[in-house]
Structure formats: C-alpha cells, structure tokens
Amino acid sequence: MLCSRPAFETFMTTPKQLELRDRERRILKTALPLVADAGLNGLSMEAVARKISYTRGTVYNHFKNKEEILLALAVQASSTRLAMFQHAVELSTRTRDQMSGVGVACEDFVARFPGLFRVESIVRSEAVWKKTTPARRNLMQTCERDCFNLLGRVIENAITAGDLTLPRGVQPPDVLMALWSLTYGGFNIAASSPDLAKVGLTDPAATIRRNCSALMDGYDWQPLYDATSFNRLRRRVLASLAKNISEPVDDASDASASIDHSRITEAQS
Amino acid sequence: MLCSRPAFETFMTTPKQLELRDRERRILKTALPLVADAGLNGLSMEAVARKISYTRGTVYNHFKNKEEILLALAVQASSTRLAMFQHAVELSTRTRDQMSGVGVACEDFVARFPGLFRVESIVRSEAVWKKTTPARRNLMQTCERDCFNLLGRVIENAITAGDLTLPRGVQPPDVLMALWSLTYGGFNIAASSPDLAKVGLTDPAATIRRNCSALMDGYDWQPLYDATSFNRLRRRVLASLAKNISEPVDDASDASASIDHSRITEAQS
DNA sequence: AAAAAGTATTGACACGGCGTCAAAATTGAC
DNA sequence: GTCAATTTTGACGCCGTGTCAATACTTTTT
Questions:
Q1: Please, are residues B129 and B140 in contact by the beta-carbon 8 Å criterion?
Q2: Which of A105, A136, B38, B169 is surrounded by the fewest CB atoms within 10 Å?
Q3: How many CA atoms lie within 13 A of A226 on its CB side?
Q4: Among A143, A219, A127, A138, which residue's Cα sits nearest to residue A179?
Q5: Does B185 sit within 8 Å of A186, measured CB to CB?
Q6: DSSP string across A161-211
Q7: Of B39, B177, B217, which has the smallest distance from its Cβ to A126's Cβ?
Q8: Which nucleotides of C are covered by protein (CB under 7 A)?
C-alpha cells in the first residue's frame, strides 16, 4: 500500500515465495479477530498456528513474536487510515471541507474496521515497542508522521488561503492535536464506555462530529459549519471511500521485512 | 475513600484482619509499577507474590485473578481523580473557573500519578471486564458515573447562571464529552507518541490546556479565557491539590468486597 | 534428470505463569 | 489449652513462549 515498491516486477516470485506471502496475509487475517475481541492476551502464536494448520515454529518464521504481529496489524491500521485521509483530502478544494472530510474518513475507518481501531489503542497502551523489531517500528512511525504531515499541510494551506487565522500563540500543530484528541479520545471513550446512552450520549459518533465542527468554528475556520452542506460533503466522502478503500488485510503486499528476519540482528539503541 | 463506611467502629478489627487489609494495600502498591511499565502482561500473580514474600495462593485469596488487581487499581485511579475534580470544583464559584479548575486537576492527576493514568488506558483497551467480579465492576462504573454527573452539574449550573448558552442541538453531555475527549485523548497521545516534539508539539500539556480553553471560548462560556487570571487560578488549584490529595495507594481502606470472595459465586449475566 | 545447496517445517525441550485444591499451619473464641 | 474457623502453603495439570537440531521440501547447478 502506501509507498509502492519500485516497479521491479517478479522480484523473487517463485511459487514458494508467493505461498509465503499469502501465508503472511493469512496469519494477520487470523490474528486480527483474536486481538480485537480478547486483547493482546487473546492473541497467541499457538492459536494462530492451529487456525492456519501449521506449527508454531512456522509462525515464528514469519513473526519474531506476537507483538510483531500486533504491530504489523497496527501498521495496516495506520496506513489504511492514512490512505483514507488522503482520499478525503483530495475530494475537496476548500480547506475546511478537506478537514471535515478527514473527520468523516476517521469515523468511517472506525465503523468499517473496528478491529484495526482496537489494535491501535492496544498498541498505544501496552508495552509492545520493546519487543518489536526496529524495522517495523520505523514503518509505523513513518506512517504516523505522514499522517500528521498531511493534516498539518491542510491547516497551513488554510492559513495561507486566508480561511483560517490562528490567534497569537496557537500553532498549526496545536489545532491538529485538538482535532486528533477529539476523535481519537472520543472514539476510544465511545468504544469502551458501554453505557454512554445512560448519561445522555445516544449517538457518540454524532457528538464527535459536532465537537470537531464546534472546534473549527471556534477557530473561525471558513466557511463555518452549515448542516446541509456538511451532510452533502459527508455523503460524498463516504460514497467515495466505500468505492475506493477496501479491506486492508487483502493487500499486505509489501509488509516489508518479513522473511529476512529469521535471525535478526539485535543491534539497536 | 469516597463513600466512607458507616461509622461502625471496629467492624471486625482483629489483628489478623488488619494484617490482611494492610497486605491488600501492599499487593496493589506492588502491582502498580509492574503494570505501569510493562502492561497487563508485566503484571503476574507470581511476581506480586514473590515481591511481598508470600505464595501465589495467598495473593489469590485477595484477588480472584490479575484482572481483578488491575481493576482495583483502576478504581483507585477513578476515585482519586473524582476526589481531585470535586476539590477543584469547590475551589471556585464561577462555573467557567470550576471547569478550568477541573482541567488543571486532570493535568495534575496525570503528572502526579502517571501509573494510575496508564492503568486506566489499559483497562479501557484490554479485555479485562469479562474476567472480573461484578462487585468491583460496579464500583468502577459508579465512580465514572459520579465523575460524569459532577461535571454535568457544572455545565448545567453554567447554563442556569447564564454563563453559557448552548446552540440549538447541543446538549450538556456533548460539551462534557468534548472536554473529556480533549484531555483523555490528548494525554494518551502525549504518553504514547514519543516524538511529538519533532512535529512541533514541545509541550503537550500546554497544548491540551489551550485546546480546552479554546473549546470553552468557542462555546462562549463566560468569562472568556484570560491568560493572567487563568494562571492565577491554575496555581491556586495546584497548590490546594498538593495539600489535600495524597498518594492513593495508602488508603485502600474500603476496597469493598475483598476477603469474602474466596469462593465467589459465578452467577451473573 | 540427478545431485547439491539452500530454505522451510517440524516437534521436542526447558521455562514460566495460571488457577485449583487438599493438607498443614495459624488464629481467635471459649 | 482446646477446638473450630480461617489462612497459608506447595504441588498439580494446563497452556503458552521461544529455541533448535533434525527432517522435509524447493530451487539451482551441473
């Protein structure tokens, strides 16, 4: 996905190689539901191996440990979200609509790939970094930075276009952090507080939507929120995402370093 | 803490009983750093038992499994935060200051008890609920609801006092959710994205502070943000919290159902 | 087409944590 | 000091991890 491999064509594509790649996809596909509904402990090399009818040893040839699998899933999550954000940005010309579109994409991501969303939270909260390879960690960080930069650019464009004027002392990253916190925090709360309805929050996603709009309005980002046009934009973005973005587990085509770490060097700070 | 036991005085306080209670505190005190720096997997009954110089069996007499320990820690986190929020609210008369004070308290909580904050995220993201007893789960939910209600009341008071007028379609819980998302999401992002500084966020806590103020300003919550008076309020709240709120692990005095579940009934939906 | 070289797969091993339970030790009431 | 009640213990069976030498299979070489 994302950074497409230089068109090398048949870069080592013996039948066996293909089988291995396919198995890697199968491993991830198998692992996702395990993590999604029982957390990191729900994922075991044992269970994955059994489900794909191989021995544990074989799974260990693909991933050094279960944290690597988790991180690989997190990379899928991040890169899928990034693709959706990019797509959403491209669908509009006005900066405010671009950012609103990103919000819609975010909501769509959570709704369509709840497992991947869950994985992201787990990766964030648990101590997985220490056990993973630098290669995959970098992949993850690159993804996150790309995402941050993409949205950062939208905000900067808004400023140069005159749609947005930040008050003294507030920088573009601050605004970005606000929107990011609102959606990330919001969806996390929504996903983990079963009875929000009891305290008056019947439709958390709608609340998050409104809050993001309120914040952008608060910063006077033009054109200000208007229900009708927002909903039109929303439908447009959702339709386009549905057409263009598919289940990420099907294209782990370049999960990068996968075979070559049978014996990986430990050298790293 | 919180709901103090009816002043029964010496309600079963043989020396042994005291020893048991004390041990419960020791268990939690021992467990916290384990969870805090290695996640749920870093916490093992084994390790806890060793550290307090008892056998695993004894620890199992106090907590049915490690998830119960985690949840007990989460309850401490929640109730401590609630106490801090209540304290912050009581320190001001104007509703805007009360809510700003809560923000300060929130920041103070994260700064002073990072382990407890970490525990909260883990409890949220991992599948612990299924393995815990209803009693403790209820304790947790009560705590969270109390917190929600406390802040909800502040917002409602703001409306009746005329400090805040919500636009059509926006309810008090929505505003609450916004502030909650901003802080919860923000501190979580700050805690788990090591290099925010590289993307221009050198002081995440300050950013979160600003964002909350911006949001309240966006809703035109009077009196609007003013740097000088905000900082004065902030210092006042911090000072008072430092005096009045202490390390929570020292007073697990009523960790409720603790001894009586040596053999707990499994009956529950 | 057969042998050699290179890979992938396996299953057994040592280890460590979980949760249970009957037996032993301790406690506190009389 | 005795005895019933409670607490503590350690050993058990189970499951998962991560490693590795031996085996099985591919691919390349001749």
A1: no
A2: B169
A3: 9
A4: A219
A5: yes
A6: HTS--PPTT--HHHHHHHHHHHHHHHHHHHHH-TTSGGGT-S-HHHHHHHH
A7: B39
A8: 8-12, 16-22, 27-29
**How far is C-alpha B24 from the geometric centre of its chain's CA atoms?**
19
Per-residue pLDDT, A15: 61
Contacts of A214 in chain B (CB under 8 A): 170, 178, 215, 218-219
In this complex, which of A121, A200, A217 lies closest to B171 when CB atoms are compared? A200
A4 contact partners, CB below 8 Å, separation of at least 6? A254
Dist CA B43 CA A119 (whole Å):
20
Q: How far apart are CA A130 and CA A134, in angstroms?
A: 9
| Closest alpha carbon to A192 in B80, B208, B184 | B184
B194 band by pLDDT with thresholds 50, 70 and 90: confident
Protein residue closest to C11, using CA and C1':
A55
CB contact under 8 A, B177 and A141: no
Residue pair A220/B223 in contact by the 8 Å Cβ criterion: no
* CA closest to A197 among chain B residues: B173
DSSP structure string for B102-118: HHHHHHHHHHH-HHHHH
Q: What percent of chain A has pLDDT over 70?
A: 87
Report the alpha-carbon distance of residue B247 to residue B7 in Å, rounded: 24
Task: Considering all nucleic acid strands, name the nucleotide whose C1' atom is nearest to the C-alpha of residue B61.
Answer: D7
